[in-house]
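User: Predict the structure for this protein chain, please.
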Amino acid sequence: MARLLPGTRALRTLEAAARHLNFTRAADELGLTPAAVSHQIKEIEDQLGLVLFTRTSRTIRLTEAGTVLFEASADALDRLGRAVSRAQKLTRGTALLK
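Assistant: Here is the predicted structure, written as structure tokens:
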């Protein structure tokens, strides 16, 4: 059975929202509206069947599941970023040799 995983855009949204613990600040960083961030987080929660944030009228907090996914998404995005950097350096190196 295939596992459904959030895409990189969703993971970036989750990572920013969890790091800031604020949908408005995450939205500013990502160039989205706070409503779009909230909607994307809700979609991830529905897709995974998990509650990632505890919401009150003025604050959000990570749940235990949210903390696990925040740490994993931050690590995954960092690793992907480094891999892209290495791949671009390889491409630049071969382009110079031609």
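The two ends are 45 Å apart (CA to CA).
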